Amino acid sequence: MYWDKVHETMPRAELQQLQLRRLQAKVREVYEKVPFYREAFQQKGLSPESVRSLADLAKLPFTTKQDFRDNYPLGLAAVPRSEIVRLHASSGTTGKPTVVAYTRADISLWSEMMARTLTMCGVTSHDVVHNAYGYGLFTGGLGIHYGAERVGAAVIPMSGGNSKRQIMLLQDLGSTVICCTPSYALYLAETADEMGVDLRASQLRVGIFGAEPWSFRMRDEIEAKLGILALDIYGLSEIIGPGVAQECPQKNGLHIFEDHFLAEVVDPVTGEALPDGKKGELVVSTITKEGLPVIRYRTRDITALHHETCACGRTLVRMDKVTGRTDDMLIVRGVNVFPSQIESVLLEVEGVEPHYLIVVDREHTLDDLEIWVEVSEQVFSDEIRTLEALGRRVRAEIESVLGINARVKLVEPRSIQRSEGKAKRVIDRREL
Amino acid sequence: MAAVSILKQVSVFAENRLGSLQAVLQALADREINIRALSIADTSDFGIVRMILSDTDLGLRALRDAGLTASTTEVLRVELPDTPGGLLKAAVRPLSEAGLNVEYIYAFVDMPLEKAAAVVKVDNVQKARQVLAAET
Question: What's the confidence (pLDDT) of residue A420?
Fold first, then answer.
């Protein structure tokens, strides 16, 4: 099912013409209206005329999270305040949040992208959408909300929290679609279980999960526990919010809406462009957004691109599920460790819950990696040696995947904090 | 004939930290469940609390309701004379001679004077019972 068949299945040559025309216009616009871009272009000896082909995109300077901070709150905006109708902000882990601005046309574009997203997942006007993404400054809640309304589905603006009430309403209102973070989906499944409710017996058919990295194993678990099709959504507020890319039921990567968002993957260290299939940092340029357009934004998300046409018929480039972030990469004893790698190991060890905590500490001069894993009833034994063997198995698996030794600490079920937003997976106690 | 029976033991996972044993005992006390025999096996990170309870099913439910990980295992209850060598003669030696490996042993607490009883965990509970029941 397509929302916008023309653009979603456009032949590549035609799509590239459209992209170039839009890129050229946007580059001219930011050059004229945003001092930050004019200066950045001039420093590289570039002007709007420098963009003659799509390949010239690679010559343009990057925009980073730091540039948003340096221009806080709205120094990167390209329109007068009177044209701005909405502001959102993303949680800044350090210092000030990142503020983004939308014009009326941007809100419409966002709704359109989210309508594509939902339609791609099979959502129609007959559906009831249980939206447990947070409403507020975070773009997740309102993004889904506007898209669902544009599609004509009934949307329940649940937001996060009060999980028992969520389970009740989900059943009573006959929700067919659920949208939340993947860790919250599992938390809801656990809560339902405690309440004696089997979510597989509910009307739920499909789930759209994102806003944090999650593994294929976690998808399998969500699909089994909720009895639904679980699809991955991608977006970030600096670009527009959710609705930058969406996975279709082929489960073959996420389609980037590249008639509006140009995607590149670069080496996170050198900034050099990487070919299809090579993992690196996703860089996105918005070529139609008005309020706060960005050129070559470094997303810090790790993925790879694929240009072959998908079996669903869309010609839009696909990105792999994001497997980590350049900034939550931990370096432990010189080895790059992504929390997602540890998660996939745990999901392969039978009976281990996918809730874990990575604790990194430094004893004397050596990094100490400790993984806290919850013991489920299936693997619990009255014999010490059986539990110790479980710990050793996890440790051996981690060593074979990461090449480093970790201590595995078995902890009581539900003792690792469940987050209703983005799950906290890492505690780094090293004082360097 | 030694008095031997098969019992259900309740085991609970407990992290090695302040308050975790208290949570186990509180859950049982709240439902007025008595502990007839108790042993705690501990490692540096976690422990396993093994118990024979006055009501196994109710106890298991109380522990799970308290959010604890608990399970049941079949073990033997062996009555012994409370004399030097009692445990050796009534349980350990016969099992060893029959080639049955003892995982762990602990004692019942509520026995009358001069009597004792032990909880014995072996792999093959049925066979162990036959071996011990045949002991005079």
Answer: 54
The whole domain housing B25 covers: 9-73
Q: What is the pLDDT of residues A56-109, one digit of tens each?
A: 999 999 999 989 989 999 999 999 999 999 999 986 555 678 999 999 999 999
- Min Cα separation A220/chain B (Å): 24
Q: Is A388 close to B43, i.e. CB distance below 8 A?
A: yes
Q: Collapse the DSSP code of B107 into the 3-class scheme (helix H, G, I; strand E, B; otherwise coil) and give the result.
A: strand
Best interface-test mutation with A: which of B40, B46, B56, B103 has the largest number of A CBs within 10 A?
Answer: B46
What's residue B2's pLDDT?
58
Do the domain assignments include residue B30?
Answer: yes
Domain shared by B84 and B59, yes or no: no
In tens, the pLDDT along A213-224 reads 788 888 999 999
Instruction: Give the count of domains, chain B.
Output: 2
Q: Is beta strand A261-266 parallel, antiparallel or unpaired with respect to A324-325?
A: unpaired
Amino acid at the residue A351: G
For residue B51, the chain A residues in CB contact (below 8 A) are: none
Given a cut of 50, the residues of chain A with pLDDT beneath it are none
Pick from B45, B73, B103: which is nearest to A410 by CB?
A: B45
